[in-house]
Fold this protein.
Amino acid sequence: MNARLRLTLPLRGWPLAALVLAFVLPGLIGHDPWKSEDAIGTGLVHQMLAHGQWLMPHLAGEAFVEDGPLHYWVAAALAWLASPLIAVHDGARLASGAFVLAALLLVRGAARKLYGGIEGECALLALLGCLGLLIHAHETLGENAMLASHALALYAIAAAPRQPLQAGFALGAGIAGAFLAKGIAPALIPALAALLAVPLAADWRRRRYALTLAVAFAVAAALAGAWLAALAARAPAALQAWLAFQARTFALPTPASLLGLLTILSWSAWPAWPLALAALWDRRYKPLDAGAAVSLAALAAAAAVVAFMREAREVNALPILLPLALMAAAGVPLLRRGAANALAWFGAMTFTFFGFLVWLGWFAMMTGIPERIARNFAKLEPGHVPQFAWPAFLAAAAMTLAWIAVLSAAERSPLRSVTVWAAGITAFWGLLMTLWLPWIDYGKTYRPVAEALRDALPPGTRCIEGRNLGDSQRAALDYHAGIVTRRGAGSARNACSALLVQGKPGEDDPGIGPEWKRVWEGSRPRDKERYRLYLRKP
């Protein structure tokens, strides 16, 4: 093959930078907040910017105790800085891109510190290729700040034997960042990982590592304590509610919850987990080296804490992706030719097929051919009018050509496996977020519903009671239309003059008395949710 067409592995320099940016950037801007985490996060940022709720995140006027403020501080700052150019919700998502980019670079740095070779790029690609990271990396979500904080802590642990003091400050910042992003459980993960490294690795049993730990816990306590003290002084009720929620986060694991977690990891951590198993299998008769020891410590800490969390959710499993990627980094160069070729072939076939489907769907929407496919798109999102956009088309074409170049020019080596997978998932996501983005946004945005509801409200309506509304709906109504709903029924003295109920089509809303008159009903296209507005009769 002509040398000019050969793609040397591992990817470094501008090819690696282009791949990372092509993964991080598409999907951050150009669409409204989507149900559910993205809408909630946008609502929290809106409350900070519009109402100055900086100390504790607020959603539609109420304290939101499920998240800390770190991610939304950064998101609000970026949204404000970018507001002359892009919408607030787009600017807020830039924080997710920044945090995910930081996590990718830090896990690369940690692998380089631990293994000292090409494993840094392998760790980055293994994390980037994890299916569970894909969607959440592009949402306004506190877990993205948590992920970056965990990656910073892992980097600090890896650097501790050579730079104990600097590593202590970085580890403390990572622990505090996880605490300020999501609370106690995420902060326990890097703290436990740092402690578990001591019995597993000789370099972490030296006296200088004690300095790292002492500095780290002092820094973490100072940063987290400052926020808690400010919250106790300014909003003691919110602090009490936050602590109560943190206590409810934990529960004893059951066989069903553990099975649910393993089921989530089986796909969300692919392909990191089979590569991590390959690394462990290769070292089964060898003493633990530094990389394996720190990776196992981090994996044990993350798995233990996540297993004791009450809900087995995709976002709760995100902390496990980092140590798996770190462990997988050692497994990629050791893959046998058959295993490496199988993963590369699977990635090539999978993402080429799905990329073709995205192009076919776009062509059908634009031209009406094939008629059946075009009709299905119109049926799924009734009322959507496709429009050709040159920037989206050219970006999609460029990503398609880049994908073809990776398949044809990447050299034959074990690293081809994770490279093809990471490039494939990036190309597929990029095509989806360029060619299909208007169609997806049309069905996922709450903007038309919120604006129609606002128009249906009598002028001067100040109190709207909400029933059965989820957090994402309440956040979207507040952000798009300035409609803040109150939970539950008010007292006779403070009774609201308007009532908004979320129900199902064809069903009467229970508990609606004769004093209410229905004046409006709306929903998103193809949505099973129905929103009905009632006004109190005079």
Notes: The longest strand covers residues 516-522.
